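Journal club prep — side note

Before the paper discussion, L.F. wants everyone to see what a predicted structure for a comparable chain looks like in token form. Sequence:
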Amino acid sequence: MLKAVKFTLDIRSYGDDKVDERKTFMRKVKECELKLTMLIVEHNLPIFLMDHLPKLLASAAPDSEILKTISCARTKVTAIIHNFKEESEANISAILKGTRFSVIIDETTDISVKKCLAILVRYTDIRAEAVRDHIWK
């Protein structure tokens, strides 16, 4: 919370070039946080890794102000992933309303006897002229 307060802009500073530079800098920080989150998701890495990865990157590149400013631990990463999930579901819903699709259901039990149900949709993406599969739930 203290880091967020540190970057709060004073109302008197609007219109300054420093404000524009600060906004650009903070946009770059957020992009870096999003890229790190996507790394975690894409490679199916544990989310708790984000408690340590930003600190490691900051120490590996001590001259990078962006890496020093990143504040992205497991709580923030979980929130980002949840928001991406909701946005993805909304996008897929919009696509499925305009095309025919099929549903693929797979149920499995893992080693801890925990059941998991995966629901996928398969549809034709007219823009890309390709058949797509997406996880629905």
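L.F.'s comment for the group: The beta strands are 101-109, 115-125, 130-135. Keep this in mind when we get to the figures.
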